[in-house]
Structures are given as structure tokens and as C-alpha cells.
Design a protein that fits this description.
The chain is α+β, with helices and mostly antiparallel strands. The protein is 26% helix and 30% strand. The chain is built from nine helices and 24 strands. The strands form four sheets. Strands 3, 4, 5, 6, 11, 12, 13, 14 and 15 form a nine-stranded mixed β-sheet that branches. Strands 1, 2, 7, 8, 9, 10, 16 and 17 form an eight-stranded mixed β-sheet that branches. α3 (91-98) crosses α5 (145-158). The chain is globular, with a radius of gyration of 22 Å. The two termini are 24 Å apart.
Length: 514
């Protein structure tokens, strides 16, 4: 395994594991093994799906949630878990693209989501490390001071509570920062475990290991699973990160996937409180956390497009060096990574998927701010299903189109896809399977063809076809996560070829050894 170029660095765990998932017992749910009929079927059991089911079941609707894997084990279980309406330096940009009214609505939707989480935690006494924190976007570079200043002007124009400062409480010099008051952080898994238990208590159903492969439009709609079972329902909500019924609206061309990395660390210096994000790239994200009662720091950042990164251990090592330089590093307790989807205009797609199909809804494209936008999506889609007006319906409509910035982003992203499709087909690998060490993976040549190989810790060789089952791009090996990642549309597969993230629905093909 290739890692630790600098021997002075502190060792980090060999395998990635999210602290949120490790710290909380997540209940198991059965696989769907029969045809069922419900009022609302929700595909995807992350924070969006579970919160939507919670809201609808409280209103007396019969709901079923289905997930291709385990609940909360997708992006929701791998977040930094900041609950904030401060989504980087976004408000000045949104003012120029969408105007004051829509930009203010974006802030209010995320503010309302934060308030929903706060009230739910307080009213139900949920033990999930919920704490109020001020949120900062800071810069240490002269080139970004004006951007911070423009963002502060946007705050004032929009009436967002906040302030402009030169120095943050962080133990290094900053040139400027913008602070948004009274934001929050938590552990999302115990929070959502409570909501899931309430869904069951209120008569809802949750099914795991149940892959949805399509939906027949109509009233009622009929969802089909890979095992041939059907869910008949009045409404469908796609909250599966990447829309499960993608061919309807070509979301693979309207979304792109990015990965980012997280360390949970023990430090020499005391953390000063607050949540922080650098304005410049590579991104640096900071927040506090209690692990086994001991104060620690979550350090995140180092984003890149899925399947298009360098040796992925280098991203963890970059965060490690930053943590050491900033706070002094005693131990790295956990490491994990996350995948996020970006829309063409940076607004999420929430609501009625197709203009002429009112009973199929979706929620996706949260960028890296899913803790608030997912709840905003659950609140909005619940209103749409129960025929209640929402001021956010048009803002987040999946059928919207803005010439600026949609066209430019569409052309750029799809040119990138074309480049990687061609490069993958022309790429040559001279590595042979017998050269692989234990816990090493690579693209190899086998019988004159491209193949993916990984030799596990026991020495067993696992061979897969590297052609992505979504649209035929060639996947590449992700060394730090031990996965095969597609550089075109973000599908990810285990070393054995099983689907981890869509849009792909089918596993990679198996390849026989010589």
C-alpha cells in the first residue's frame, strides 16, 4: 500500500471509517421481499429520505423507504455535519445570477432547515452533540480579501446576521473573514436514528439492500426493484443522492460528482470554538467534536472530481500536515471521505421532477451542504405532497434553467466527461497482476485487454472489467478507499465490482484470470 511519503507524519488508520457511523448503533432493516402498496415511496435512506418519511408519517401518510445499501451509510454518514446557511462565498455570486429575492429565499430555506433540526433536537431531547457555533469563511491570501468583502456586502443587502473581521479565533494569521452567527453542528446519525425509529412507530416501513431499477409513471406510480418486486404508490420521492430514474431527465449531464476528505484528530492546542472554511483552495474545513468524551478536531477539505484525483492518500496527508501545522497533532483517530453532487447553477434540484408528472419528486445536488439543504428538501417535498404552498418551490424546481450560469457549466462539465471517456479508452497499462502486492490495486493488462485488479490482505486477487456499467467510461483505482471510481459521472464500485454510488445500477463485470 503506497502511503506516508513523509515519515514525520502521524500514522492514520489503515481503513477509512466514519466516526458518525462508528459511534452509533444503526438499526438493521429487512430487504423488501414482496409487492407492497403505500401512499408515498421514498428511494434513498439518508438524511433527506429519513426526514421526509418522518414528516409525512407524522401527517398520517403510509410511507415506505427503500435503500440499495444500509440506511445512513451514504453521504449522510460521511459528512462534516455542519448545520449552516453559510455555504462558502455564495451569496454575492447568487445575487449576480438570480437577484435579491431568490437569493434571500435560498438563505431562508437553509435557515428554516437549521431551525427545524434545532427544535427537533430540543423538543425530543436527542443526544447528538448538537451545539450552536458561529461559522466563518476566512482567507489567508490577499487575492481573496475582496471576495470576502463582497460577500459581507451581500450579507448586509440580504439582511443576513453576520460580521466582517480580519482575524478569526484560529491560531494563525488571517487577512479577512466573514462570520454568520448562531449556526450549529451535530452528529447526524443518532439524530436520524431517532427519526427512523419514529417512522416505524408511526406505521412506516424501511427496507435495506433493496435496489430500485425504475418507475412506471402514472397515478398510482409503480416502482420496480432488481428482485422483481413492485411498490405501488401515489407519490415517489427520489432521495437516492443520484436520481434513480435518471434517463427521464438526463441528470448525468446536469450533475457532477466531487469527493472530499476528512480526518478526526487529537491535537496539542485547544480548539478555539466555531466552524471554519477557507475561501481559497484547496479547501480547509474545521470544527470540534467529542470522541469518547475527549475534545477533538474534524479537519476536512481537498476536494476533486470523482475518479480524477491523484493518488488519493495524498489528500489525507495534506490535511494531516495542515492539522499538524495549525494545532499540533497527537493522533489521527478516524479518516473518511464523502461524495457530493453539484448542479449546473449550484442550487439543488428539489421538487417535481418533470413538469407533466406531478407525483414523482426528487432531491439532489446539495454540493457539500447537505445537512441543511437535505432538510429544506424534505420540508419542501412534504409540502408538495400534502398540497401546501411553499415559497421555495420555483427556486429549487428541477425543471428550471438559467442561461447564466447553466450553459457555460453544462458545456464545461460535458467536455470534461468527453475528455475522460476518450482518455480512458486510449490509456495503456503495462502493470501485471503478479506484480501486485497485498492490499494493492491497479489497472492491468490481461489477455491483451484492460482490467482492474486488487490483491487483498489475504493475497486473493480480485479482477473486474473496468468499463463502467453506466455509460461505458473506464474506471480508475482509488487507492485510499479501495474502490473503482468513474471519472465521467461519479459512479463508484467496490474492489469486487459491486455498486457503491450511482448513477450506475449494475456491478462491474468479472474477469477470469489467465
Amino acid at each position: 500500500m503506497k502511503m506516508k511519503q513523509d515519515e514525520n507524519l502521524v500514522a492514520f488508520p489503515q481503513f477509512p471509517e466514519s466516526y458518525w457511523l462508528a459511534s452509533t448503533d444503526v438499526p438493521n432493516f429487512p430487504k423488501l421481499n414482496e409487492d407492497i402498496q403505500v401512499d408515498v415511496a421514498i428511494v434513498g435512506a439518508g438524511i433527506t429520505g429519513i426526514t421526509t418519511a418522518y414528516l409525512l408519517s407524522k401527517k398520517g401518510l403510509n410511507v415506505a423507504v427503500v435503500d440499495a445499501g444500509r440506511i445512513l451509510h451514504g453521504t449522510t454518514g460521511h459528512t462534516t455535519a455542519k448545520i449552516t446557511a453559510q455555504h462558502d462565498l455564495i451569496y454575492s455570486e447568487f445575487l449576480s445570477h438570480f437577484g435579491k429575492e431568490k437569493t434571500r429565499l435560498y438563505y431562508e430555506a437553509n435557515r428554516d432547515a437549521l431551525e427545524f433540526i434545532r427544535q427537533t433536537v430540543e423538543e425530543n431531547h436527542i443526544d447528538c452533540q448538537f451545539t450552536e457555533e458561529d461559522a466563518y469563511v476566512y482567507t489567508s491570501a490577499d487575492t481573496h480579501v475582496e471576495k470576502i468583502s463582497d460577500e459581507y456586502k451581500a450579507y448586509k443587502e440580504l439582511g443576513i446576521p453576520g460580521s466582517y473581521v480580519e482575524q478569526t479565533p484560529l491560531p494563525f494569521s488571517t487577512k479577512a473573514a466573514i462570520m454568520m452567527e448562531n449556526q450549529a453542528q451535530f452528529n447526524p446519525v443518532p439524530f436520524l436514528r431517532y427519526l427512523a425509529n419514529q417512522v416505524i412507530r408511526q406505521g412506516g416501513k424501511i427496507y435495506e439492500q433493496t435496489t430500485v431499477v425504475g418507475v412506471d409513471k402514472g397515478n398510482p406510480a409503480i416502482i420496480k426493484t432488481s428482485d422483481g418486486h413492485k411498490i405501488t404508490c401515489n407519490h415517489v420521492v427520489s432521495s437516492s443522492h443520484f436520481p434513480f430514474n435518471d434517463p427521464n431527465s438526463l441528470y448525468f449531464a446536469r450533475l457532477h460528482a466531487e469527493r472530499s476528505y476528512v480526518l478526526a484528530v487529537k491535537t496539542d492546542k485547544t480548539y478555539p470554538g466555531g466552524m471554519y472554511l477557507s475561501a481559497e483552495t484547496p479547501k480547509r474545513s474545521l470544527r470540534s467534536v467529542l470522541i469518547n468524551g475527549e475534545p477533538m478536531v474534524i479537519v476536512g477539505g481537498e476536494g476533486h472530481k470523482t475518479g480524477q484525483g491523484i493518488c488519493t492518500f495524498q489528500y489525507y496527508e495534506a490535511l494531516e500536515k495542515f492539522a499538524e501545522q495549525t494545532f499540533g497533532l497527537k493522533e489521527i483517530v478516524y479518516r473518511w471521505s464523502a461524495q457530493d453532487l453539484y448542479s449546473l447553477d449550484k442550487l439543488p434540484y428539489i421538487g417535481q421532477e418533470l413538469a407533466d408528472v406531478p407525483n414523482i419528486l426528487l432531491a439532489t445536488g446539495y454540493r457539500k451542504w447537505g445537512m441543511t439543504t437535505s432538510v429544506a428538501a424534505a420540508l419542501l417535498n412534504t409540502n408538495l405532497i400534502t398540497r401546501k404552498e411553499s415559497p421555495y418551490q420555483d427556486l429549487f424546481s428541477p425543471s428550471r434553467f438559467h442561461a447564466d450560469p447553466d450553459i457555460k457549466t453544462f458545456v464545461t462539465q460535458n467536455a470534461n466527461v468527453a475528455k475522460h471517456l476518450i482518455a480512458g479508452k486510449l490509456g495503456i497499462s503495462h502493470k501485471k497482476a503478479e506484480e501486485l502486492q497485498q492490499d494493492e490495486g491497479a489497472v492491468i493488462r490481461l489477455n491483451g485487454k484492460r482490467a482492474g485488479a486488487y490483491r487483498d490482505l489475504q493475497g486473493t486477487l480480485h479482477l473486474v472489467d473496468t468499463t463502467c456499467t453506466h455509460m461505458g467510461c473506464e474506471v480508475d483505482w482509488n487507492e485510499a478507499e479501495r474502490t473503482w471510481d468513474c471519472p465521467c459521472h461519479g459512479s463508484r464500485f467496490s474492489y469486487q465490482g459491486e455498486v457503491i454510488e450511482g448513477p450506475a445500477k449494475k456491478a462491474l463485470g468479472k474477469v477470469e484470470a489467465e
